Amino acid sequence: MAAFKELVFSGVQPTGNLHLGNYLGAIRRFVEMQARDAQCLYCVVDLHAITVWQDPDALRGQIREVTAAFLAAGIDPKRSIVFNQSQVPQHAELAWIFNCVARLGWLNRMTQFKEKAGKDRENASIGLYDYPVLMAADILAYRATHVPVGEDQKQHLELTRDIAQKFNTDFAAAIAAQGHEGGFFPITEPLIGGPAARVMSLRDGTKKMSKSDPSDNSRINLTDDADAIAQKIRRAKTDPEPLPSELPGLKERPEADNLVGIYAALAGRSREDVLREFGGAQFSTFKPALADLAVSSLAPIAAEMRRLSADPGHIEAVLADGAERAEAIAQETLDAVKDIVGFVRRRRA
Ligand code: AQP
Asked: What values do phi and psi take at 141, rounded to 5?
């Protein structure tokens, strides 16, 4: 692998209904990361997807759709490594070793598990509970230094850092004996930020925009056409006040704050700057401007996704090439980890 200053890893679950939050909070930032001196790996995390039951035929389609979204948004599969998680078995293998490093108490604090398992906790899959450990393995199999994610993943990233730290401490002597200076795993930096780190539902400004929200009007899907986007923005919940001219005026107005944040992110501007332009305007003026901006930003991506989806052979070739390149890096990590923990491993010719 060429020597890069940074190694960037991130993933998206193929669980259907890719939305504006996934795009602004994650995928668009993956594209931006390609400009840095970094090897970027972008993964369709299908092992994570099955922590909640997925229809097998639908899952196959969703894996191709997320890959198409990556490419349509501007991820270059030659420059970056694009692959699906289940093609690189080292993720699951490293997750097992991390299961023996992570503590039960750490996982018991994960709020996403509590939210997703809900009241029926006894009936949740063990995979859903263990999700953050697999996520740590995804990241650390490549010893990634940076992970661009939405704000909802902050706690999971903290767990990844805790696992890396504990592994480095538990095996400090073996790590030093193997010649790795300053610990084996990096303490990965989460890259969370900007006006769209947490895009909220269009129907309720206190709830995250989410794939699994039963109301399709709560989110803008990446595959929505211009009419659907404009209609969802027109119907988005708001309050009767005009937009304020300054940021503090958005306090206690979650829906207004969300729409201004979406506009800012799509336009590549700050919230303050958007308010300088639209301060005093009614939503009847702001919403059409937002709809035009959303349509002009998303329509080319949707069109390219449609074009790419018509050629599943091409998508699968991209994934196969990415898996091969990813596996070469992950296997190096696994070999070193096996030496560090004391396994007798098969020597390769
Ligand atoms: N609303 C959001 N705003 C900003 N970023 C978001 N992300 C998700 N929702 C928002 C970011 O998108 C990346 C991929 O997310 P994921 O598909 O792996 O996981 P998720 O958080 O489970 O997605 P959803 O849409 O919220 O699905 P459900 O409904 O199943 O909970 C991540 O970087 C995530 O932060």
From this structure: -60, -25
